[in-house]
Design brief:
This protein has 132 residues and is mainly beta. 13% of the residues lie in helices and 39% in strands.
């Protein structure tokens, strides 16, 4: 039968694993995916009167994985992940009906982890494409 001090140590370790979450020291979170971080987009501004029929939007940041996708104004688009810090997708002028600001985010679907205390995937903060 385990001693009281061993049980206390085990409970402390279990509590620590669940409290630290995936992005810390929890070894149970190996299958989780990191939340993407979006730092900039290119282009960041365009002129409505001279919009091309379509253009490539480049997202720069970190923690992009093969399942990450670009989201333009709420629409998930076919995306090419160039690297863990860059991805591209095509925006059409039909998606920009008038001048304004259009939010761009990167979404990474959750991984296969079922471990409590593990976060997986997520949506980046937004950068706006400004169309004048």
């Amino acid at each position: 039968m385990p001693s009281f001090s061993n049980i206390r140590l085990i409970l402390l370790l279990v509590a620590l694993l669940f409290a630290t979450g995936c992005n810390s020291l929890n070894p149970l979170c190996g299958s989780s995916r990191p939340a993407p971080v979006l730092q900039s987009i290119s282009p960041a501004t365009m002129t409505f009167a001279t919009l091309p029929a379509s253009f490539t939007l480049t997202a720069n940041g970190s923690s992009f994985v093969s399942s990450s996708v670009g989201v333009f104004n709420g629409a998930t688009l076919a995306t090419t992940v160039v690297s863990s810090s860059q991805l591209t997708f095509t925006v059409t002028n039909a998606m920009i009906p008038a001048a304004g600001s259009f939010p761009v985010t990167v979404n990474t679907p959750a991984g296969n982890t079922g471990v409590v205390g593990c976060s997986s995937g997520g949506t980046s903060s937004a950068q706006d494409l400004t169309v004048n």
